[in-house]
Structure formats: structure tokens, C-alpha cells
Amino acid sequence: MTGQPNIRSKKQGLATRSAAVDLLLDVLHKKQPLDDALSEALATPAVKKMEPRDRAFIRHIVSTCLRRYGQINHTISDYVQKPLPDKARKAKAILQIATSECLFLNTPDHAVVNSAVDLAQQTTDTRPYKKLINAVLRRIVTNADAILSQPHAAKHNVPQWLLDSWAAAYGDPAVDGIIAAHLSEPPVDLSFKSRDQVTSYAGDLDGEILPNESLRRFAGGQIETWPGFSDGHWWVQDAAATLPVRLLGPVEGEEVIDLCAAPGGKTLQLAAKGADVISVDRSAGRLERLRENLARLALKAEVVQADVATWKPGEKARFVVLDAPCSATGTLRRHPDIAILKTQKDVVSLAKAQARLLSAAAKMTAPGGTLIYCTCSLQPEEGPEQVERFLSENKTWQRRPVTRDELPDLAEAISEKGDVRTLPHYWAKRGGMDGFFIARLTAPL
């Protein structure tokens, strides 16, 4: 009987790592975003019956592997004489998952190596690589300290086109800060329906109240089980993502059009502030999540499924918010797959779509009204360059600069022209934030 728990634990460990390997392959070779691939994996019978901690570990191990993807591949290539053939992609995934555990997850070395070899033994396409996997991992374990002490190793995790873009836009010191911020698991920021609730829940949630009145929590676990979730007091929203609505000013009793709104953080903010919100998005699935959150929080908004580029409101609104679809390179710490799946061509394509959406949003804004344009991208083409293009083509529109008094704790994020550019390493001692660009524009009278 004394050996039974260990046997069970070993089986659980293999099942968890096997699921992690499959999830990694879905991201790398099926080009599925991690969140989408994870949702599918969690719905499979094998993963569904796992303990919550095992399901959480699957995501943790794969997100770590993707976050350190360049370092991991660079390390493996140092110990493999020639690149593995395409037919060995699963064997390579086993190596990648195991290397992430060896170097970055503090898993006992023997457990990592033995589990990887056992995984390779399970299928005919990986069995021929069992000895190679064993040999490579043992060398990595032996040389782990030297591998981890290599200077500038973290830059391997970012594609060169992104490094060049960020260096040109923000300078090398900022690039180092961005890379460092992306290497850590992000905290969870909660937005509350009222200020009083933030204070009252800070202790129960073991959270830190941020200058923007979000509550930041580092502890793990299932969000649905946290105090206040089922009571409808808060929703998850990164601190940087709260800024666009904050820069509108008072909106109580005002109609606000929230474009490309799903999954709905800004709609929830606006509704909680007493605005009459029209929330527009073309994704039925994402809008369903918005409706669920509105119901849970007992908030109201008019939800419209439509293409923002062609949809027209009954009347123009005094306030319009456009959080345009983008490359999301400002959210790499939350979505590390973006650095692998997105390319420069994607940015070019998205920039064209953003230009169309910004023009459409302008036509929905009442004379003298305010239009907020924002993206969670670090790419200039999707931020300041979009605004400069729009203003050059629409000379009666004006930028309404954001002032330091409006964002006293993020003065470094305000550009000379009055736009807002947050970078992932801002508020580093508090745990960082997503990269966001925000411009506030005023329609002609």
C-alpha cells in the first residue's frame, strides 16, 4: 500500500505532461492562440477529470515554455548535433516542455528526465528519439547553472522584428525592461463596481489597491471561487485597460458607444459609472461572455452583434471608445504565444483595418464629442502613427492632450503630444502592466 500513491502520482504526472505536449503542438503547429487551444484541451475527457491543480499546471508549463521559447530552443540546439526532422515534432515538444521544467519551473531533475523518457516510450513516432531525449536532458540538467547565467539570453525569446521595432520606438533600456516584464507570470487585476468595495475586499482577496483603484492579486486558484465573484462585485481587467474609460471623465447619464467591445471590460466600467452603453462587437462568442458578466454584475448595456466598420447607430454619441483589434504585443506576459504566432505582415494588415475602424468611429461621434482610440499593441503603426494619419486626413478633428493631473501616477506614460503609452515594465515594483496606447480626440463642432 505504501507504494500506491507514488504510482498514482507518476501516472498523473505523465498524463499532465502529455496534455501539455499536445497543447504546445496545437499552438506551434496548428497556430491556435493559447487561450483557444487551452479551452479545447480543458473540454477533453482526459483533462476534464484531472484535479484543478493539474489542469492549472498544464497551462503554467505551456505558458512558461512559450514565454521562454527562444531560450529553450537555443539551449536544445546546443546539445543536438543536427536539427530534428519535421516528423519528430512531438519528440521536440517533449524536449521543449521538459527543458522549461528543468530550467524555469524548479521541478526535480530526475522527475523531469524520467517523465520525458516515459512519454517518448508511449508512441511509435517518439520512441526512436527516447535515447536522444534522455541524453540531451541530462546534459541540460548538468549545465543548468551555466545556461541560466548566459548574458542577454532573454532576448532570444523575442523575434528580431519586434526587438528592432521596440528599440527604434522606445530605446534599448526600455526594451530591456519590456523583456524582463514579459518573463514573469502576470498578476490579476480586478475592477470593482464601487470604490467602497475595493477597500472592503482588499483584505479578503489579499490584494494591493493600485493608484487607478484596481485591486491587484498575485495568489493563484480558480477565479470563480474568489470572494466577491459570485456576488457580482468585480471583474478581471488589467490596470492599463482601465485607463481609456477613465480619460473620458464623468459619463453618468451619457450615451457611450463602446466599439470592438467584447469581452467587455470597458463596457462594464462604463455601466458601473452610470453610462447608457451601446456595446458593439462582431464576435457572437465573445459577446456571450459580455452578457454573462453583465448578468453576474447586475449591470445593463445594449449589446449589438455587428461589424463596427459598417454598423451605424441611431444617433451620434457624445462619447465613443474604440479599442481596435491589434497585434496585442503589449500583452505578451499574458499571451506569450503572440511572439510566436504574430508577424510583421500581421501588423501591416491590422493597421489597415484599424484605419477603417477609426474612420467609422469618427462618423459615430457627435459634434464636439470625444473619441478614445486605443490598442494593446506596442507597435507604433497601431498607435501614434494611426492617430497622426487620421488627424492629417481629418484636419477639423483635434487631439485633446492627456495631462499629468489626470494620470499623476503614470506621468512617464504621457507623450509630448498628450497621448498615453504604457509599457509593460511601468509599475515594475507593483508587478507591471499591459502595454497600451491611448489617444483622446475631439470632433469638430
Please give the structural blueprint.
Layout: H1 4-29, H2 34-42, H3 45-48, H4 52-67, H5 69-79, H6 89-104, H7 109-122, H8 130-142, H9 144-148, H10 160-170, H11 172-182, E1 188-192, H12 195-202, E2 208-209, E3 215-217, E4 234-236, H13 243-246, E5 255-259, H14 265-272, E6 276-281, H15 284-297, E7 302-305, E8 317-323, H16 338-341, H17 344-363, E9 365-375, H18 384-393, E10 398-399, E11 420-422, E12 436-442
Parallel strand pairs: 5-6, 5-8, 6-7, 8-9
Antiparallel strand pairs: 1-3, 1-4, 2-3, 9-12, 10-12, 11-12
What does this protein look like?
This protein is 46% helix and 13% strand. With 445 residues, it is an alpha/beta fold. The chain has two domains: 4-154, Orthogonal Bundle (N-utilizing Substance Protein B Homolog, Chain A), CATH 1.10.940; 238-442, 3-Layer(aba) Sandwich (Rossmann fold). The strands form two sheets. Strands 5, 6, 7, 8, 9, 10, 11 and 12 form an eight-stranded mixed β-sheet that branches. The chain is globular, with a radius of gyration of 24 Å. Residues 1-8 have low confidence and may be disordered.
Q: What string gives the helices and strands in order? A: HHHHHHHHHHHEHEEEHEHEHEEHHEHEEE
In total, how many beta strands?
12
CATH H-level superfamily title of the largest domain:
Vaccinia Virus protein VP39
Indicate the mean pLDDT: 94
Q: Give a short account of the largest sheet.
A: 8 strands, mixed
Radius of gyration: 24 Å
Could you name the CATH topology of the largest domain?
Rossmann fold
Which structural class matches the secondary elements?
alpha/beta
Uncertain residue segments: 1-8
What is the first-to-last residue Cα distance? 81 Å
Helix content: 40-55%
Strand fraction band?
Answer: 5-15%
CATH architecture of the largest domain: 3-Layer(aba) Sandwich
Tally of distinct domains = 2
* Main CATH class of the largest domain: Alpha Beta
Shape: globular
Number of helical stretches of at least 4 residues = 18
